[in-house]
Amino acid sequence: MRCYLHAFLLCMVLSFLSLLYVFSQLASTLEDADGWAAREHGIPDRSSHESGHLLRKMPGPAGLPDREEGEGSDSFVKKPSDERSHLAVVACGPRLEETLNMLKSAVLFSKKPLHFYIFAEEELHNSFRDALKSWPRVVQGHFNFTIYHITFPKENEREWKKLFKPCASQRLFLPLILKDVDSLLYVDTDILFLEPVEHIWALLTQFNSSQLAAMAPEHEEPRIGWYNRFARHPYYGKTGINSGVMLMNMTRFREKFFKNDMTAAALQWEEMLMPLLQKYKLNITWGDQDLLNIIFHHNPESLYVFPCQWNYRPDHCIYGSNCKQAEQEGVFILHGNRGVYHDDKQPAFRAVYEAIQKSFEDSILKPGPLEASLQTTTHTYCGRASHLLTKRLKQSIASVQQDVTKRR
Ligand SMILES: *[C@@H]1O[C@H](CO)[C@@H](O)[C@H](O)[C@H]1NC(C)=O
Ligand SMILES: *[C@@H]1O[C@H](CO)[C@@H](O)[C@H](O)[C@H]1NC(C)=O
Ligand SMILES: *[C@@H]1O[C@H](CO)[C@@H](O)[C@H](O)[C@H]1NC(C)=O
Ligand SMILES: *[C@@H]1O[C@H](CO)[C@@H](O)[C@H](O)[C@H]1NC(C)=O
User: Fold this and answer.
1) Rounded to whole angstroms, what are the CA distances from 227 to 11, 243, 289?
2) Residue 269 in contact with residue 176, Cβ under 8 Å?
3) pTM of the predicted model as reported, rounded to 2 decimal places
4) What's the rounded Cα separation, in Å, for the pair 359 and 302?
């Protein structure tokens, strides 16, 4: 009897191994086929004739994706069946680790597939690629990515580059660079998703016919608001908008004629940006975010304002809690601006950052240790509001764990 059992087990192991082999062969064939498809179709929206091989070996000309990652010919074309969330980030300077942590938080909780559009300085391309390729295989199955060079319109390249932080104003040009992408969620590098990306993505379907972008207010509390106290330019609404989490229907960006205070005629997105910068460059403080505020001041019907729990910053707790929706439902997306993930000013934000950073190593993120480290931050106002940081996060973790258990 025992002997049979052994033989049976051996058989099972062998067939499993051969299956694995077949799969790996199949996978590499598919990869090749995909590479071919990407090459055949060329890179959209540029009349480049370089082959994919060339692109792979050499840094492509500005604006071309540096590399297609296992992505078929359908990569840029929206299909009715596209259930992916398309996530873009712009990373310059020392932002590699932070950006990877943001991307990690996106894959940790999302159940629908993701596509990452990573705009980065040349020096960072290999590091991004290597890091993403080193993630666990199961995780890699949930996303594809494309890495791009930072590009600005040739005529005014210098002026755009030096506006605010290096590269930050790249986001203004995404509708023009990613011409074949219908919609995009742009986030700053210091964003952490505490719930699936597809939840914010779903807001796109709530846009009415004139809305083309969604953002959160810059402040909840006008008494500490920046724009209403200091701005020397028009801004949206009572306290302005924050562009760190920006959901865009880019098809509509490309189609719309925007009202503005430069000409009587409405202008298209690409026609408007440079005159706007020229007019306001001496008066703006926060770079492209200020430009977005000016634009939506003149086109308020085009903006969908989502509540602060989708873009929760130290401002929402630093002088006491002022984001009501987060108090009710928890924080959905954390935005650690002012460098709070990396210094000791807001240890509660840092604790969440570090918990996510460790998460593939400890396999799945566990709420216990995070809550313990948040307990040590209660000497700060944000620490005292830390149950808001974990409320939604704990649900997200539980939901992922449930799926893992089901699969076993
Ligand atoms: C990534 O691209 C491959 C090849 O086109 C595709 O089969 C796969 O479904 C994509 N994965 C995701 C998560 O979109
Ligand atoms: C974006 O807007 C276009 C034009 O109105 C529409 O066809 C498309 O379905 C919208 N995309 C999404 C994701 O809602
Ligand atoms: C810039 O700020 C100054 C001082 O507040 C103001 O007088 C001027 O009108 C502003 N420029 C524009 C284009 O709004
Ligand atoms: C869409 O919603 C915005 C904000 O509520 C509003 O200003 C605008 O008039 C609405 N557009 C349409 C076509 O209903």
Assistant:
1) 70, 13, 11
2) yes
3) 0.83
4) 38
Q: pLDDT by residue (tens digit) across 308-366?
A: 999 999 999 999 999 999 999 999 999 999 999 999 999 999 999 999 999 886 566 78
Q: State which of 215, 241, 259, 301 you would mutate to test the pocket of ligand 4, scoring each by most atoms of that ligand within 8 A of its C-beta.
A: 301
The string of DSSP letters for 143-194 reads EEEEEEE----GGGHHHHHHSSSTTGGGGGGHHHHSTT--EEEEE-TTEEES
* Residue ranges per structural domain of the chain: 65-70+83-308, 310-407
Question: Between these two residues, 29 and 314, which has the higher pLDDT value?
Answer: 314
Residue with CA closest to ligand 2 atom 12: 204
Cβ atoms of residues 152 and 173 within 8 Å: yes
| Ligand 3 centroid from CA 320, angstroms | 33
3-state secondary structure 11-51: HHHHHHHHHHHHHHHHHHHHHHHHHHHHHHHCCCCCCCCCC
Query: In this structure, what are the phi and psi dihedrals at residue 395, rounded to the nearest 5 degrees?
Result: -65, -40
Q: How confident is the model at residue 300 (pLDDT cuts 50, 70, 90)?
A: very high
Can you tell me whether residue 258 is helix, strand or coil?
strand
CATH classification of 65-70+83-308 is 3.90.550.10, yes or no? Answer: yes
